[in-house]
Design goal:
This protein is an alpha+beta fold and 576 residues long. The protein has helices at residues 35-56, 87-93, 99-114, 170-181, 210-215, 238-241, 262-267, 332-335, 366-381, 383-400, 409-412, 430-454, 462-465, 482-491, 549-558; strands spanning 2-5, 22-25, 147-153, 159-165, 189-195, 200-203, 222-227, 247-249, 273-282, 289-297, 300-304, 315-319, 324-329, 343-348, 359-362, 417-418, 425-426, 498-503, 511-517, 520-531, 534-538, 545-546, 569-570. The protein contains 15 helices and 23 strands.
Length: 576
């Protein structure tokens, strides 16, 4: 009879583990059992079983991890069973193995080895090699963004949000808006800083950083995108901006600057010109305005405490130029009870909405206000303004070498043709070509008139288009009031030749040409007149007639006629 002995710690068996049972011969009661030999036989049996499992399955380390190929580990199994080991080690070597775990690893190895090796198409999305999941450390570190959000409004109060770099200037932002709005880039667009609560606005200089200006604005303030033809007009016509009686030297009492050296004296930092004259000053914390004699120099704006004296003991500093900006006052007569409509303000940069820190000033006419404000800009920025003025001209001169001629290639290839005979012929004589063009024009008018008499023309007929074609032009603004036309001319610079067309309020069939000349706004009525059954438009009581308003504008852009000056700059409003 044999006895079965299991040499294992049964209390330490987890579920799913198997035990090794040994069948030993049952000793006789009278025989002595050699326990040491019995244990050695059991250990040798376990050693053979362990070796067979290692050959048939994936090798495991002592901590249950998979042994990868190419990796070298220190041997973690028990020492050779032939050596004498402690009973603790012998018990560790004789523990049963997790057979279900070995089978699971074998199946996983079989499945992965049977599939073809597919490369990972997105290795940058996997942190460990071969990992399909995205972890925070797998992506490259994101750099801090140096862009800012700016909201710009057009004349129709429609805003546009633009993301710009932190160092973008006002000129670059204007060019970006021109590109996005599909406008004509004629270097007359400007970015305007508008403060509706205080009734102030100013045109940003081209070199100013937009983000820095935005940081000094309140939540109610905003940027406007509009035309400003007078931004650098003083470089072209300095005598129109600086009256002779207002410009003098600081050191001498009764000396004027020659017109030829006018701009040089302002741009040269070593010279000391000044602007002098009377201004109305609003007293702080009071609604009263006081007329005083002022002097504007590079060091600041001074008020004379004794008449028009230039002596240093009679001059009191009213405002500094370095840390201040000059603004135009909007509706100052209505809001601030100003004596005239030509107000301006000197606002320190540190001030946001405090009315007490503002220096409210008022001139007697528009020319005086323009002189004070232009001199303030020249004294503060100097040669930098001249560089801003020259940059667009340098770019235009650079592009002119690569640009096409004034006439396109298609226009140069056009020739006058005569198709009166069987075959067409080229008219080489320029006099004959001109007479043929005139004859064709008269024939076209007769045909249009004959079709008009026969019946109502189609909507696409030239006689119908002449009544509505002007509505597509940027200089036509429809039914706006006289006051609105004045406001638009004021905002866009009040330079000579700035114009717009609008519907007449007194005559529903007529139109009005609003024109600026010598900083004064004038209105000219365009009346319809009929000749040979055809409608024309005239500005001089029928002496010069045009079939539509586009022809009228194009004529007066080339000829002065009865107007004080030619039409140069259209007053334009563009929606962003």
């Amino acid at each position: 009879m044999k006895r079965v002995i299991c040499l294992c710690d049964i209390t330490s068996f987890p579920e799913g583990w198997s035990c090794m049972y040994l069948s030993l011969p049952q000793p006789q009661p009278e025989d002595d059992v050699d326990l040491e030999a019995l244990v050695n036989d059991m250990n040798s049996s376990f050693e053979n079983l362990y070796s067979s499992v290692q050959c048939e399955s994936t090798p495991l380390l002592h901590n249950g991890q998979l042994h990868r190929l190419g990796e070298t580990h220190a041997p973690t199994h028990a020492p050779n069973l032939g050596q004498q080991t402690s009973p603790h080690h012998r018990l560790h070597r004789s523990q049963p193995m997790h057979i279900l775990a070995v089978r699971r690893l074998q199946e996983q190895q079989y499945r992965t080895s049977s599939l073809p090796a597919i490369p990972n198409p997105f290795p940058e999305l996997c942190s460990p090699a071969g990992s399909p999941t995205l972890c925070p450390g797998s992506l490259p570190p994101s750099e801090p963004s140096d862009k800012s959000i700016v909201k710009v409004f057009s004349e129709d109060c429609i805003g546009k949000v633009v993301e710009i770099p932190a160092e973008m200037t006002a000129r670059d932002l204007c060019q970006l808006l021109v590109y996005k709005s599909h406008c004509v880039d004629d270097n007359s667009w400007a970015l305007v800083e508008h403060h509706p609560a205080m009734g102030l606005e100013r045109c940003l200089e081209d070199h100013e950083v937009v983000v820095q200006v935005q940081a000094s604005m309140t939540s109610e303030s905003k940027f406007l995108f509009r035309k400003n033809y007078a931004k650098y007009e003083f470089f072209k016509n300095p005598l129109n901006f600086f009256p002779e009686q207002m410009v003098a030297w600081c050191q001498e009492s009764n000396s004027t600057i020659p017109p030829s050296h006018l701009l040089q004296s302002f741009l040269n930092s070593s010279s000391c010109p000044e602007i002098q004259g009377h201004l109305y000053v609003k007293e702080s914390s009071r609604k009263a305005w006081k007329k005083q004699h002022m002097f504007l120099r590079r060091s600041g704006l001074y008020v004379s405490t004794k008449g028009a004296s230039k002596e240093p003991r009679h001059l009191q500093l009213l405002a500094d130029l370095e840390d201040s900006n000059i603004f135009t006052v909007i509706a100052g007569r209505r809001i601030l009870n100003a004596p005239t409509e030509y107000g301006f303000c000197i606002k320190p940069n540190r001030v946001r909405s405090e009315q007490k820190e503002l220096r409210m000033l008022c001139a007697e006419d528009e020319q005086s206000r323009t002189c004070w404000m232009t001199a303030f800009r020249l004294f503060k920025y100097g040669i930098l303004l001249y560089q801003n003025y020259k940059i667009p001209q340098q770019r235009k001169a650079l592009l002119s070498h690569f640009s096409a001629p004034v006439r396109s290639v298609s226009e140069n290839s056009l020739v006058a043709m005569d198709f009166s005979g069987r075959i067409g012929r080229v008219i080489d004589n320029p006099v004959e070509a001109q007479s043929a063009a005139l004859e064709e024009g008269h024939a076209w008018r007769k045909r249009s008139q004959r079709m008009h008499n026969l019946g109502s023309p189609s909507p696409l007929h030239p006689s119908s288009l002449s009544a509505v074609i002007h509505k597509t032009q940027l200089w036509f603004h429809g039914r706006i009031t006289r006051e609105e036309s004045h406001r638009m001319i004021h905002q866009q610079g009040q330079v000579d030749g700035l114009f717009l067309l609008r519907d007449s309020q007194s005559n529903p069939k007529a139109f009005v040409l609003t024109l600026c000349h010598h900083q004064k706004i004038k209105h000219f009525q365009i009346l319809p007149c009929e000749e040979d059954g055809q409608m024309f438009f005239s500005l001089d009581d029928g002496a010069t007639k045009f079939t539509d308003l586009i022809q009228l504008v194009e004529f007066y852009q080339l000829n002065r006629g009865v107007l004080p000056c030619k039409l140069k700059h259209p007053c334009t409003i563009v929606a962003l």
